[in-house]
Amino acid sequence: MGLVVRAGTPADLYITSELSARGARRQPDYLREKKAIQELANRMVHEPAQILPRLVDLAMELTGGISAGLSLLEELSKPAVFRWRYLRGTLAAFENATSPRNHSPSGITLDQDGPVLALHPERFYDWIADARIEVPEVLLVPLHFDGAAPMGALWIIADREGHFGSDDARIATELASFVAMALKMLRTEQRLQDALTEQEMLTSEMSHRVKNFFAVSESMVRMTMRSESSKEEMGKSLIGRFHALASAHSLIRRSFSPDGTPPKASNLEDMVRTIVEPHERFLAGGRSRFDVKGPPVVCGEHALNGAALMFHELATNAVKYGALASDAGRVSITWAKTDSELVFDWRESGGPGIEGKPEVSGFGSKLLNDTITQRFGGRLRHTWHPDGLKVRVSIPLGRLVH
C-alpha cells in the first residue's frame, strides 16, 4: 500500500523505506529479548496493571529511544482522537494529552497498518510544534489483536536522525502485539468489573424504585381524589396516570421490557414529557404544571436510559418532598447547548417552603449523582431556595449520542 498523506506534506516527512535500507543497527540480542518476553508473560499473570507501563519501558530500552508511549484511539470522541498513555522518557509530562486521529503520525500508521518512520514531524503538524516538542525521528507501529481493527499505536522517539533500523521496527512490532493483547485483557476485565458494579447498583436501584413507586402511587391517588368529582372519573384518571407511569418506568431500563421493544421516546423532549406525564395536574386556566422546552436533542440508547433515570429521580423527589407534593406546585425543565455541553435546569416553585439543604441524603440522591457524574461524566449542582429547589446539570454533548 502506498503512503497516503495530506497535500502539502514535506516529501521527506515519512521515510519508512529507510528502515530496510539502513538494515540492523546492531547484532540482535535474542537472549535479552527472550528474557524480556518471559518477564512480560509473568507480569501479565501476576501484575496485569503493570504490564502496559513495562511494555513501553521495554520498547524504549530495546530500541535506544529517549521517549515512548501509547496513542490509544478514542473513536467515540467527535472527531476521533488519540489519548496519550503510559508515556516514558522526555515526553512523560504529556500524559493524557490528545492528538487528532486524522492529522497525526499515529493516524498514518493506522492507515498504513504497519510500521511508519517520520522525520521531524513538528515541521508539518502544528499541534506538535505548538507544544514545543522536537522529534528528530519517531518510529510508530499499530496495536493489533486477533485481526480486530487497530486500537492505537506504540511510538518511540529518538534523539537524532538516522537512529532507527529494521531491527527496531521488528522489536517494536513484537512488543506492540503484547501491548494489544494486554489492552484487550485489561479492557475485558474492566467491562466485567463495570458489569458487576452495575448489577450491584441495579439491585439497590430496584429496591429504591419499588419504594418510590408506592410513594408516587399514593400521591397520584390523593391528587386524583381531590380533583375528580365521582368514582368513575377518579378511576378513569387513575388508570391513565398509571399507564403513563408505566411508560415512564419503561424508559429507565430498556432491557426490562418483556418483548424487547424500544421505548416510544427517542428524543429528549419526548422522554421528559413521558417522565412527567403521570404527575400532570392542570392548574387554573388549563395551564400545565410543567414548562418543558429546549432545542432538539436526539439521545442514544445508553444516554436515553440514563437521562430517563435522572429526570425520573428528580420528579419522584419533587412528588415526595418538593413542588409536586402541592396542588399549586410547578416545575420548569429547560435545556440549552453550549459548544461542548448540554445544560439542564430543573426549577421548582409553588411547593412547600425550603429552609435549606437537607441534613441527610438517601440512596436516591446518590443514584442521581452517580448517574450524572459517572455515567455521563457531567456535573450536578443543587440550590435550595426558599421558594423551591433548583438543579443544574451539565453533560458533555458527546456522551448523549450513545
Q: What tags apply to this protein structure?
A:
alpha+beta, 2 domains, 6-stranded antiparallel sheet, elongated, Beta-Lactamase
Enumerate how many helices there are, as a single number: 10
Main beta sheet strand tally, sense and closure:
6 strands, antiparallel
In terms of per-residue confidence, which ranges show pLDDT below 50 for 5 or more consecutive residues? Answer: 254-265
Could you spell the SSE succession in H and E letters? HHHEEEHEHEEHHHEHEEHEE
Give the proportion of residues in helices: 40-55%
Summarize the structure in short.
This protein is an alpha+beta fold and 402 residues long. The chain contains ten helices and eleven strands. It has a six-stranded antiparallel beta sheet with strand order 3-2-1-6-5-4, with helices on both faces. Strands 7-8-9-11-10 form a five-stranded mixed beta sheet, covered by helices on one side.
Write the topology of this structure.
Blueprint: H1 17-22, H2 30-46, H3 51-63, E1 67-74, E2 81-89, E3 98-100, H4 105-112, E4 116-119, H5 126-130, E5 137-142, E6 152-158, H6 166-227, H7 231-252, H8 268-276, E7 290-293, H9 301-320, E8 330-337, E9 341-349, H10 363-375, E10 379-385, E11 388-396
Parallel strand pairs: 7-8
Antiparallel strand pairs: 1-2, 1-6, 2-3, 4-5, 5-6, 8-9, 9-11, 10-11
